[in-house]
Amino acid sequence: MRNPSDATKLRQKRCKGEGMDYVPWIKANEFSSQSISTIATNWKNGRRIHLLSLSEMKVFYTLNFSENVVDIKEQYALDYDKTCKIATKLGYRKPYKIMSTDMLVKLNTAPYTIAVSIKASRKEAEDQRTKEKLEIEELYWADKNIPYVLVFGEDMDRRFVKNVRLCSEIYKKELIQNPIMAVKYLIIHRIIDVDMFEELNFKKILEDNIELVGEFYEDIR
């Protein structure tokens, strides 16, 4: 799919909505890159999340599993004039189009909002133009008194990400067809507590929580 112009995106009021009404600045099917883009589901509100790389996917699953994370707005557009002013002040080339921050994360505790940039590795962040754009982002959010962090996909725990992804596939009760699916639902909604850094044996978890899962499964059938 052709990537719409910035003017079209502005007319569409992208990045203006909240919750289910939020539309990212860049959608997965509009992204032209060698990276693998994907669409995941935010199990906390049911919205489809547009992730433009494997690293973004890893960070999304890791962050969203936290009980402190209320919502995540991906590909969040920055004010073009402000980024140009920051670039000029730093002596950098102005961005030729509207920039976006990979994730704007809403929390239920202070600082309540954080801005997150994501790179696959530290080596990727060593490119000079990439460094400049990251610094522009950092100063942009500093001006809004919003903490900014740079996160690397290589730091995300693969097993943790895999476990969250598998459990999040059963994010709503309507998807449950058997007790194992019920276990996944109860894990992703933090009703059953397990070590997500270890390989999950769903049959064993079911056995250990048979009364809880059994009552829950009967209630929804």
Gyration radius (Cα, Å) is 20 Å
Count helical runs. Answer: 8
| Count of strand segments | 6
Order of helices and strands: HEEHEHEEHEHHHH
- Overall 3D geometry? elongated
Question: Widest sheet: strand order?
Answer: 3-4-5-6
Average pLDDT number = 95
Distance between the termini: 41 Å
The helicity comes to 25-40%
Q: Approximately how much beta-strand content do the residues carry?
A: 15-25%
Low-confidence segments: none
Largest sheet data: 4 strands, mixed
Structural class: alpha+beta
Q: In oligomeric terms, what are we looking at?
A: single chain
Q: How would you portray this structure in words?
A:
The chain is of the alpha+beta class and 221 residues long. Helix content is 38%, strand content 17%. The protein has eight helices and six strands. The chain has helices at 6-11, 54-64, 80-90, 128-143, 158-168, 179-188, 202-208, 210-220, and strands at 38-41, 48-51, 69-77, 100-107, 113-119, 148-152. The chain has a four-stranded mixed sheet, sandwiched between helices. Strands 1-2 form a two-stranded antiparallel ribbon. Strand 5, helix 4 and strand 6 (148-152) form a beta-alpha-beta unit. Helix 3 (80-90) crosses helix 4 (128-143) and helix 5 (158-168) packs across helix 6 (179-188). The longest helix is centred in the middle third of the chain and has 16 residues, at 128-143. The protein is elongated, with a radius of gyration of 20 Å. The mean pLDDT is 95.
